[in-house]
Automatic annotation (TrEMBL):
Pfam families: PseudoU_synth_2 (PF00849), S4 (PF01479)
Protein family according to the UniProt entry: Belongs to the pseudouridine synthase RsuA family.
Signal sequence, start to end: none
Enzyme Commission number(s) from the entry: 5.4.99.-
Molecular-function annotations in GO: 16S rRNA pseudouridine(516) synthase activity
Residue ranges occupied by any RNA-binding S4 domain in the UniProt entry: 5-68
Protein name as it appears in the record: Pseudouridine synthase
Originating organism: Metaclostridioides mangenotii
Source organism superkingdom: Bacteria
Keywords: Isomerase, RNA-binding
Record has ATP-binding as a keyword: no
Amino acid sequence: MAKKQRIDKILSNLGYGSRTEIKKYCKNGLVVVNGATISNPGQQVDHESDEIYFEGKKVVYREFVYLMMNKPGGYISATTDKYDPVVIDLIDPSYLIFEPFPVGRLDKDTEGLLVLTNDGQLSHRVLSPKKHVPKTYYAKVSGVVGEDDIKAFKEGVVLDDGYKTMPSELVIIKSDDESEIELTIHEGKFHQVKRMFESVGKEVVYLKRLSMGNLKLDESLELGEYRELTDEEVLLIEERN
């Protein structure tokens, strides 16, 4: 059974206004619970079993929000930054009341799949080193990528700080002076994909995340666009093939 909460707390948490504003709305008869007009903003309500209406429209309560964004370059994967725009700047204010944050980071110049949520437990599970949630990237690489690189990445490469990466799966789409690849990694070290290619003498010139777990980027989303995840898609974030 859901724990009862004050009606002003429920409505303010959902972005209907401040506690002071909700108090005025109650006095003006705009809040109705189970068919009865609520004048007391401190009245205890069960958001799961009680029917709440505000200005004649049913209030749908939810604790968490889950968003999929096609992150554009030039934005920091953070909620605030002193110098650069952040991905939260792209989110509609109606979602900001939930205080969403990025699940993990994409570099400033990296594009693609970014999940934002206020579900801290989900974020912790996805980012936990013990989980090894796979992430697949598409990259353009300066230099010819070949079988030796596939073998090296499969065995794990040593980064500039001496860390040896877990085995990863490198697929070559095009091998040329500028190669195109897809790479699946199972950890999330700082600038990992770029540093992996640096370890084999090559440079990543474009990077885009395609998937996290079994959740794939919705390619219909333009850069900077986002949408809510379905319940099924939320489960896919933690799944591994």
